[in-house]
């Protein structure tokens, strides 16, 4: 499971659709709807929020926004707690600049192999943008990241 901290527009088609599927799986785990993946390291940051389901809902919404910009049809009805449901905004989740750099390098390697045109965009980005749920803070790679 890879729930990218990076802005979804950096992802290629395969990455965006995989991110959507994996975030839906994460939502199922956080909602207690599946037994698998309970200890997955990337869920740590969602569980650390005051409302994990609202946080993953905001994450899914950001991915769905990018899908819509590309005219893909991701079913927002699958988001259990959509942020656009009159709820207060979800507080942004901190992600370290070391984690962002790690993910940038990881995604760049994938894009160079399967979507070179997307790799050029990410490679040329000065400051790498993050998903709208996140806010970048100084620090090393996150403890939950697997080397």
Break the fold down into its secondary structure elements and pairings.
Blueprint: H1 13-30, H2 44-47, H3 52-69, E1 93-96, H4 97-114, H5 116-124, E2 134-137
Parallel strand pairs: 1-2
Description:
The structure is a single chain. The chain has helices spanning 13-30, 44-47, 52-69, 97-114, 116-124; strands spanning 93-96, 134-137. It is mainly alpha-helical and 147 residues long. The protein has one domain (8-137). The protein has a two-stranded parallel ribbon. The longest helix is centred in the first third of the chain and has 18 residues, at 13-30.
Briefly, what is this?
This protein has 147 residues and is mainly α.
Shape: globular
**Number of distinct beta strands:** 2
Mean pLDDT: 92
Uncertain regions: pLDDT < 50 for 5+ in a row? none
Spatial gap, N to C terminus? 14 Å
> Strand sequence of the main sheet, in spatial order?
1-2
Structural class: mainly alpha
Radius of gyration: 15 Å
Biggest pleated-sheet summary: 2 strands, parallel
Number of domains as seen in the coordinates: 1
Helix percent band: 40-55%
GO molecular function: lyase activity
Keywords: Lyase
InterPro entries: Pyr-dimer_DNA_glycosylase
Protein name: Pyrimidine dimer DNA glycosylase /DNA-(Apurinic or apyrimidinic site) lyase
């Amino acid at each position: 499971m890879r729930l990218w901290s990076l802005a979804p527009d950096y992802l290629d088609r395969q990455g965006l659709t995989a991110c959507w599927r994996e975030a839906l799986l994460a939502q199922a785990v956080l909602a207690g709807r599946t037994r698998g993946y309970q200890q997955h390291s990337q869920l740590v940051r969602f569980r650390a929020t005051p409302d994990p389901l609202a946080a993953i809902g905001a994450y899914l919404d950001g991915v769905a926004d990018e899908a819509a910009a590309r005219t893909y049809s991701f079913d927002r009805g699958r988001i259990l707690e959509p942020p656009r449901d009159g709820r207060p905004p979800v507080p942004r989740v901190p992600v370290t600049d070391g984690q962002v750099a790690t993910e940038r390098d990881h995604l760049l390697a994938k894009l160079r192999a399967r979507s070179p045109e997307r790799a050029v965009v990410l490679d040329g980005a000065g400051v790498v943008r993050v998903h709208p749920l996140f806010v970048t803070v100084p620090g090393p790679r996150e403890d939950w990241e697997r080397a």
